[in-house]
Amino acid sequence: MDFVMRIIILSVGVLLLISCEETQLVDENVFEFKLNNSYTIVDTNEEYETANGFEALNNNFLNVVLTDGAINEELNVPCCDYKVWDYEINPSTYVSIEFAKKKDELTPGVYTFERNAKDNDFVIRIFNQIVFNEKNELLEYNTVAYNHHTLNEEGIIQKAQLELFFGELSVVLNYSIQTVDNKNITGFFTGPLERFSYNYCYYDCD
User: Fold this and answer.
1) Is the distance from CB of 173 to CB of 187 less than 8 angstroms?
2) Which residues of 152-167 are buried (b: 16+ CB within 10 A; e: fewer)?
3) Tell me: the pLDDT tens digits for 98-148?
């Protein structure tokens, strides 16, 4: 009987340990925020609307764009010193989410990004205060969050989590970001994704 009881106690202890480890790895409350197709910089309570969702078709993996602007079926990407964009409606803010898998390989669930990880489920970039002139030339923008390691500390993403759900004609995205300079950003989008293609510039600018 003593031996059996020891086995039972040991088994319960292992289950409790596993449960605690899972709780530490996945924060179930991280997506409990109320937003309406927008993102907010929590620390300053600034909220930016991203009412329109788009899917870039000519990327190898799923690339979602959330913005307050509008994109035609094709979007020409300027290069060299040419700064003219051809958005249908110029955006003032722009969120780009690129997954590491194709759309049909993704399943509903939580995806993660860690700055020092060798492999990540996705990368995300956020820009706001985007300004164009009357010729649709991009004049300036502000980097809110970015995954590129060569920028200065401000805005570099330390870690991020994203919750993804697919509907019949729409998607639901919740995302939470923490930067290395301790900025916290949360965002939400639900709705259809309009499809477009990037036209990339391949000129030699030298």
Assistant:
1) yes
2) eeebbbbbbbbbbeee
3) 999 999 999 999 999 999 999 999 999 999 999 999 999 999 999 999 987
Give the model confidence (pLDDT) of 85-94 as tens digits: 999 999 999 9
The edge-to-edge listing of strands for the beta sheet with 184-191 is 46-49, 38-41, 184-191, 171-179, 157-166, 109-114
In a domain, 63, yes or no: yes
* Beta partners for residue 84, in sequence order: 137
- Domain extent at residue 124: 29-199
Q: Is 17 helix (H, G, I), strand (E, B) or coil?
A: helix
Give the three-class secondary structure for 85: coil
pTM of the model: 0.82
- Residue 103, classed as helix, strand or coil, is helix
Report if residue 65 sits inside a domain: yes
- The reply to whether 59 falls in a domain is yes
Q: Domain count of the chain? A: 1
Amino acid letter, 104: D
User: What is the 8-class DSSP label of residue 45?
Assistant: T
